[in-house]
Predict the structure.
Amino acid sequence: MSEEEVREEYLFKIVVIGDSAVGKSNLLSRFSRDEFDHNSKATIGVEFQTQVVEIDGKEIKAQVWDTAGQERFRAVTSAYYRGAVGALVVYDISRKTTFENIKRWLDELNTHCDTTVARMLVGNKCDLENIRDVSVEEGKNLAEEEGLFFIETSALDSTNVNTAFEIVIREIYKNVS
Ligand code: GDP
Ligand code: MG
């Protein structure tokens, strides 16, 4: 490897937003440590986790930020959004209200970040098919309207969690490389 290549560094800040208890912290712990926490407890302490991923042979550090239980609207500070180049906007497929609030989260994202931020709409808890309250179609349609990527995930059984982050990371990489 040449010195040039060694010096090349990619650090992407990605924020995870959405209503309380949609599974943001568990998506992050599944992605960064392959862990799931059954006890719902308010996120305390850790502001972000850094996970290294390899894209096209390049080492990329994904610095993923988790709201420290500040999910009320406008309680998330601008420092949280500062410098973000990617965002996962999360709802819970078993709770319609969390889906209805997505527009407000997108508004908030747009007031803090410019439109080039790679944005993924995430319908989490897809393992809860038996109590589904938001159809896949509804998710897809909203994503299309708003120009977002769309995916359904389960932090519980790991479905699509890495894929969700990887799509966002690839898109960011595409924009900067
Ligand atoms: P946050 O408030 O958005 O950070 O949500 P948490 O990650 O704390 O999760 C809230 C609750 O939902 C916890 O009881 C989790 O165990 C549960 N949970 C999170 N992700 C999933 C999932 O994919 N499937 C199911 N069934 N439960 C989940
Ligand atoms: Mg949390």
Remarks:
- The chain has a mean pLDDT of 90.
- The beta strands are 10-18, 48-55, 58-66, 86-92, 118-124, 149-152.
